[in-house]
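Here is one chain, start to finish.
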Amino acid sequence: MNLPEESAVLSSWKDIARYMGKGVRTVQRWEHHLGLPVRRPNGASHKSAVLLDRSDLDVWLATRFSARGTVRGLAAKGSEPSDSARNALRESIKTARALRDTNHALTQQLSESIRLLAERCDRLSNHALEVPWSLPASPPEPRVNSLARQSKRIA
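Its structure:
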């Protein structure tokens, strides 16, 4: 089944995939993740018929994907990043290094705190094993408040 060259509208996933030189599943994934501009009938589910205008697809491709030859051509011509881009990159690198150093210091502090906590837990558990808990032989006598004592003296 060949695509009619005069048809400006692609009317199935197979037609769209063939026009793009990709598989049907790839094109469907691009619609879901990258916003491929397919059209469906109003109120239709995601499994319904699709339509895509070739010109819409060409515009979408031009805005979504860069031509690798263009990027390589710029690099070959020696185009350099601007000074502001270099300065921004330097600042980002400084910030990243500072964050890395801070993270390293905090990690060391956390490790030391965990080590101390484990050491103290061991001491407590060893102390509990050495000194068993002892319960009193008889319950302590209830405390009597001073008013009750005075009433006993008067009586």
